[in-house]
Amino acid sequence: MTALAPGENRPAPGDQLTVTVASSASVDVSALLVNTAGTVRSDADFVFFNQPTGPGVVYRHGNGGPDVVGVQTSSLPTDVDKVVITASLDGRGPATFASVGALTTTIESGSTTLTFPISGLTTESGVVCVEIYRRSGAWKVRAVGQGYDDGLAGIASAFGVNLDDEPDVPAAQSVAVPPSQPPAYPPAGAPPAPDHRGPGQPGQFAQPPAYPGAPAPTYPGHGAPPAPQPQPSFSSQQGAQPVHSDLFDPSHAEVNGLGIQKQGGKMVKVGMNGEVMARAGSMVAYQGDLKFEALGSGGIGRAIRQHLTGEGVPLMKVTGRGDLFLANSAADVHIIDLDGTDGLTINGANVLAFDSTLRYDIGRVQGAAGYASNAGLFNCVFTGRGRIAITTHGSPVVLTVDQATYADPNAAVAWSSSLQTGIKRNDSFGLGRLMGRSTGEASTLAFSGRGFVIVQPSELPPGGLIGGTGGGQQAGTGGGIFG
């Protein structure tokens, strides 16, 4: 075993290299395939937990032990000049390497082992450990130990990885709001508008939920409601009686039209002629020629943020022509239209589907630093023009924020992104709290500004009391300081 000093380089001990980064804290290991300009050729050259393979490079999760990167130098493309091995804190332990003990990189091939103990890190949360680089037709190993204060995202950005990537969406295939008209917000107290689009009228949305005082233009050309469908008649065969059931009542028939629409109270139907983004695993049925593509959390940048925050939406992209039916554990379904003037902040666990014209990212809830809530210390923020389907546990109330407004963190589902948020303590921290007496409403989310808050009649985390922490693939955060 040979120990390397910072900056030292040696010939690579073989063609097949196994690189292990061991630490007293939990770290994520990744690899970047870099060209002579010092950048990745494309995002496919970033090999990490959400993209575990690249040409000549494989990432393997440690499953309780150190993460491992395998590099076969003979399989690396000719325009790859080096492979950069990095480690970053994963958010489950210390915030910086200052409080981390041993951090050691090991490169093994056959009977040869090189080690590089890294020390002297302070405010950094990510570090370039070693480089495997090409020199005069041969491969060498260099000990680096360069730290980054902004962790894996900072390392990836420094080597040219696009952290804000969005899939290209052909305009002709997206179900979008006509650009000439913003959406309608009906006057306060008005009954909800019918939630349908006429047959063959893509992109013509029903009116979204209202909050008083909002602008009141309308979408043009609403289609007529779907015509009642006759009760099916099933001919008797081989002497069997025809089938009759109240299931064949027109109220159970599928709705007509393109785009995202409510199919009853707990399901949506997407009339497909293009693409839509849906929660992974939410498909309950489909007809026609549809293709399903898993996207993880959607994009490298969001994958990194979701990994660190526990918030996000495990997505699939559905493309083609036909009818797609989506649901999530029989939760109540609601439709919201965004016109681009304001965004929607929502827990990832409550997202069912959305138009690909919408953009979403993961952002911190303002004023909630140091607290945990079901509404999320980090939540998904949707912006742009298009339609989104969300779910709630029970029938919600939509509160107009025209005065100081507060909601239980486990009941607040979503709100206007333009609202200011904070934390309000309700219980005084006195002898009663110390002896176990409490109102059960120790802290609430506070909202101010102009907009709306959607509150469900349940204080359970999405997925129930055993749902765990985080949003997205996890069920939702519950409990915590809010009590």
Q: How would you state the average pLDDT, rounded? A: 74
Structural class: mainly beta
Biggest sheet descriptor:
7 strands, mixed
Strand content: 35-45%
Spatial gap, N to C terminus:
53 Å
Indicate the radius of gyration in whole angstroms: 27 Å
Q: Helical content, roughly? A: under 10%
In one word, what is the shape? elongated
Give a summary of the structure in a few sentences.
The chain has 483 residues and is mainly β.
Can you describe this structure?
- By secondary structure, the chain is mainly beta.
- It is built from 3 helices and 29 strands.
- It has a 7-stranded mixed β-sheet, with no helix packed on it. Strands 14, 15, 16, 17, 18, 20 and 23 form a 7-stranded antiparallel β-sheet that branches. Strands 2-13-12-9-4-5 form a 6-stranded antiparallel β-sheet.
- β7 and β8 form a beta hairpin.
- The longest helix has 10 residues.
- The chain is elongated, with a radius of gyration of 27 Å.
- The relative contact order is 0.10.
- The C terminus is likely disordered.
